[in-house]
Amino acid sequence: MKNPLLEFTDKGIYCSVAKVYLDPWKPVDKAIITHGHADHSRYGHKNYITHHRNVPIIKHRLGDINVTGVNWNENFTINNVKFSLHPAGHIIGSSQIRVEHKGEVWVFTGDYKTENDGISTPYDVVKCDTFITECTFGLPAFKWTPQNEVMDSINNWWLENQAEGKTSILFGYSLGKAQRLLKYLNPEIGKIYTHGAIENMTQVLRPLVDFPETNLITKETKKLELLGNMVLAPPSAHGSSWIKKMVPYVTGSASGWMTFRGARRRRAIDKGFVLSDHCDWDGLLESINATGAEKVICTHGYSDIFSKYLREQGYDARTEETQYGEEETTESEEKITIR
């Protein structure tokens, strides 16, 4: 019996014919990378291949690496295996990886979302025989509100806090979520201040997206300057000494996990906004159906529940273990940055 086109190994997802890994979590000779989040894009590989928009992102995060950038839908062949990258819609530069060999087609999504956020290249359906899907929010309880409605709620929240003379602190991952929030914050309400990790990543992405003006918080930033304004910070800043100088403040978090009130309470967040860079339940099902795939492999998230549901719908579905998770970022990226 021949090996499958893609195998799940202790180093990552492996194409043995091409001798290349997809988003490996241990150092390898050649890696094709879907996007820049640290759980999918790790240090130590000899050669990286990724979408050209992701190149500056992973160089910023990983330093001096040997990386090749390719375009959407650009075919490149390794040992007679045809690869191409297609928009995943997750964050800027995020890709699905299409793998074709001897008429068999697999697609590895990495992380993806179907809602067009206006800053990432929108998700594109890629037909395939086998589809490897994340299941981060693979429960029927997860159903997203349209982005414009969520951003209206955030800007109204900011106005309310400003009227009470308080600083608004909004938490979002330094890559992806923070820039999505920034793009749609209303600068007419007030100034937008940033934590160093978010400011540094935003500067990397400014050549690609027209963002509002931001102000980096430094040791010299006074509390009075922040009152009534907006602060964008990574989740790791919550409860830190960095944030204490901003009293009085109100905290908010933009995440799919804010669907559950318990998550907001556990994280001691004053206000939760349901905004995710992943598919909700309907988005996952619609995406899988559109691919025409008969076989579905479910990875990180609610994979057991989701794959069971798919089997009930007639799919040949199973789960596989990976080391991917919820936009994990390295401690060095999320540390308090003061100039």
How large a portion of the residues is in β-strands, by DSSP E? 15-25%
Number of strands: 19
Low-confidence stretches: 328-339
Could you please say which CATH topology of the largest domain applies here? Metallo-beta-lactamase, Chain A
Major sheet details: 7 strands, mixed
How far apart, in Å, are the first and last alpha carbons? Answer: 59 Å
The strands making up the biggest β-sheet line up spatially as 7-8-9-10-11-18-19
Question: What does the model show?
Answer:
This protein has 339 residues and is an alpha/beta fold. It folds into 2 domains: 7-141 and 277-330, Ribonuclease Z/Hydroxyacylglutathione hydrolase-like (Metallo-beta-lactamase, Chain A, 4-Layer Sandwich), CATH 3.60.15.10; 147-273, Rossmann fold (3-Layer(aba) Sandwich), CATH 3.40.50.12650. The protein is 24% helix and 24% strand. It is built from 10 helices and 19 strands. It has helices at residues 55-62, 147-163, 177-184, 196-205, 223-226, 241-244, 261-266, 281-291, 303-312, 331-334; strands at 7-8, 13-15, 20-22, 30-32, 47-51, 67-70, 76-78, 81-87, 95-101, 104-108, 130-135, 167-171, 192-194, 215-216, 230-233, 249-254, 271-273, 295-301, 316-319. A 7-stranded mixed beta sheet has the order 7-8-9-10-11-18-19, with helices on one face. The longest helix has 17 residues, at 147-163. The chain is globular and about 70 Å long. The termini are far apart. One of its GO terms (molecular function) is RNA endonuclease activity. It comes from Cellulophaga algicola (strain DSM 14237 / IC166 / ACAM 630). InterPro entries: MBL, RibonucZ/Hydroxyglut_hydro, Xnuc_lig_assoc. Residues 318-339 are annotated as: Disordered. Keywords: Exonuclease, Hydrolase, Nuclease.
